[in-house]
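SAMPLE LOG
Freezer: B-3
Tube label: C17
Construct: single chain, 305 aa
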Amino acid sequence: MTKITSILLVANPYAGRFRKATLNQVSAFYRTKGIYVKEILDLSVFPASNIFRKRWDAALVMGGDGTVNRLVNTFSPGAVPIGIIPTGTGNVFARELGIPLKDPLKAASVVMRNHRRAVDLGYIDGRYFLLMTGVGFDGEVASILKWKQKRAFGIWAYVLAAIKTFLKFKPTTVRVETEVGTWHGVGVLLCNTQRYGGPFCFIREARIDDGYLDVIIFKKMDMINILRYLLMATGFSMGKLRKNYSCFRASRINVYSDPAVGVQMDGDYFGSTPISVSVLPRCQEFFSPGQQSRYLCIPYSCALL
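STRUCTURE (predicted):
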């Protein structure tokens, strides 16, 4: 395995918990070990800068899931192993990998151990995603959510945007076609990870390296059922809801609707339907503390599977 002598450190200064002092501390940590570190804080250079065309032993993200997504979409899959210093709002992918969330130097030391985990990427129309893609209600929520709001209010920015969206939301029937069948509903989640965001964990058995996406099709999307889904995803048992959703795994998914509805990718607005989704199995390496347990969420916190 290649010894790490150079790191491209991409920091998002607008991430919820970013501090310049922390960036300096992390850079100094690597430099004392003889590693060359190049810092980038201007995300507007993605992906035009020649700096991304150079050969790096590792790329390191100091930010949240959105910044990780941008870096994955800047390099070709598998071009460089990626590490994470989680300073975002949800830090879902860092949680999935078991990376320390509250101690930046412990997170930085994960890279030095040089243990890597190859993970799947979802793919839609020239873009990759790590966590999930949502069609319908959460896609519409993402369409009105701005980074300044996320910076200022954190998870509450999503809550406020969800309330605002619901007041004018009219569910639209979507058709989901896969290699295992065709389904209809009013909302769809295509999950690579167990966690959806924050405390919400919909698919306990989802794995980031199994070559599949876990698909949830919601058949009802009124306020009462949205609250029930969220309660269920935080650990409450609501067995009667089983008739209101379908769950299965697939590697190729097409989603259609008329009229078009919003689509979010890794929490950021992507566009609208129709979409064609596929999986690139184990195509991107991430630095991780070691082999992770199959079940990363607390017992009974993932009620859908």
